[in-house]
Amino acid sequence: RSITKSLTKPPEAYPDAKNQPHVQVALRLKQNGYSTGCSAGDTVPYIICCEEGASLGTSAGIAQRARHPDELKRDNSKWMIDIDYYLSQQIHPVVSRLCASIQGTNPARLADCLGLDPSKFQTKVIDTTSDDPSTSLICSVDDEERYKGCEPLVLSCPSCSSSVECPTVFSSLCKSINQKPNEVQPNELSDIWRRLRCPKCPEEGDVGRISPIMIANQVKRQADRFISMYYRGQMMCDDETCKYTTRSLNLRVIGDSERGTVCPNYPRCNGRLVRKYTEADLYKQLSYFCHVLDTDRCIDKVDANAILRLEKELARVRPMVDSAANIAQKLRDRCAYGWVQLTDLFLTA
Asked: Domain spans of the chain?
């Protein structure tokens, strides 16, 4: 049975026509001289297909693979029904909801029974736990694991215009006192904090020198970029075959879904809209900037016999990075994600 959807306006008037299967079908019908099924108010039937000889569930977009029943009959030697699509998007979600209360069943097992790849249907609870940035921030004991996936702090030299990915102040200074850091960062430019100048500029003169104001301004600019990314509020479908991205929320409710999470491609897609860049991602990134510029807590990471030498190096570097570190800390502390409201946990008389 074909999927049907009505045109709310002429197919040429859709700004996102490339992502709308029924619009693509209507445009082709109009090009082929059809008078019905391609105007505003008409209902367009279509079938998701794949090319003959191509693997089922091909990576081509759903809209590009939608075909009118007449097209499928006419070109049946070229196109075939995409069975995997209908099993995964039309049948599996319904069967999963019906069997949710049956002990011993789960989406992955049901997918296996339908002949689908069960690895693509692991429970979302497991996926959410493993991908949640807050899990690594709270549970990881190693800095490399804790800040995995964060973008580096990049400083641009005002003299030569080259960019340098900055390691942590701690790892850079540890090299100067022959003390191995807990987190080794194999970067030939990692001595930027020890030299306090651009590693690519000549050693002589003031060319390439790093000033506290320059560091603070560049840290502020990069932090603002991530904050803007969060407030852009982009939502993305969690279905790997869809990945629909939008800033507009679909407020209808389907089944047990929360308001604003239904994918605009429903019923062709049963995925849910999730934030592309979450508050946890932002908090983790700003925490990483604080970690890079840290000159206080890093003392706890070295042996007792190396503390005096490290303190001497830190006393030289601290005035250079204090302003930038304070900016990063203030921006991080403004994130509500890092605060716990006790009134939400305890009842008051």
From this structure: 3-81, 87-122, 133-229+279-338
Query: Residue 223, SS3?
Result: helix
342's CB contacts (< 8 A; 6+ apart) are: none
Superfamily for domain range 133-229+279-338:
DNA Polymerase alpha, zinc finger (1.10.3200.20)
Look up the pTM and report it.
0.58
pLDDT digits (tens, 9 = 90+) for 286-304: 999 999 998 887 777 777 7
Cα 113 to Cα 85, 97, 117, 266, 308: the distances in Å are: 15, 15, 10, 24, 65
Rounded-to-5 percentages of helix, strand, coil across the chain: 45, 10, 45
Measured between alpha carbons, how far is 292 from 215 in angstroms, rounded to an integer?
12
Task: Enumerate long-range contacts of 131-140, CB under 8 Å, 24 or more apart.
Answer: 132/280, 133/278, 133/280, 133/281, 133/283, 133/284, 134/280, 134/283, 134/284, 134/337, 136/284, 137/280, 137/283, 137/284, 137/287
Query: pLDDT (tens digit, 9 = 90+) per residue, 151-200?
Result: 999 988 888 888 888 888 887 777 666 544 444 444 345 567 777 778 77
CATH architecture group of domain 3-81: 3-Layer(aba) Sandwich (3.40)
